[in-house]
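Methods — Computational structure assignment.
A single polypeptide chain was analysed. Its primary sequence is given first, followed by the predicted tertiary structure written as structure tokens.
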Amino acid sequence: MYTMKKAVFFALFMLGCLAGFTQKPQKIKWLTVNEAQQMQQKEQKKIFIDVYTDWCGWCKKMDANTFNHPVISKLLTKYYHCVKLDAENGDTIYFSNQKFFKMDTQKRTPNEFAVNLLNGKMSYPTTVYLDENFQSLGPIPGYLEPQMMEKILIFFGDNHYKTTEWKVFEKNFKGEIIVEEHGY
């Protein structure tokens, strides 16, 4: 009986140790636009901007599901300075020697910076990708599942966009995130 208890304890102990080796999300260090510009002077990376609003349900879902995924947080930390931008922020935003203001004092009015980033197509959430020189690589509107965001982060992060068309890249992409197949 004593040996059986030891064996069970040992098995539980080993399972606990193995659980410690599973991927856990890295904490994404979200920055302001100003902080990202300062970080860029210290370490050149691309800029990832999550454009959201406080009232957007899909934005909250993306925070909970996509940004908390261990592969996504690892890729964001590796390749990007990450910015959270409330599109309806009332603060003046300074970016590339320009000032951007909230366009109106009314609720749900966007900041000029958000309008500029999204090319006037106000959709939340939208992720925006900038290169190391703050040039737009493109805004991507809508909620993104982790497996789709993984493709996009690597496409821009590893500079595939410079040599490969998106359709070709996507067709040949083999990521870390496994999509669960449902039998319906």
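Note: Residues 4 and 10 are 10 Å apart (CA to CA).
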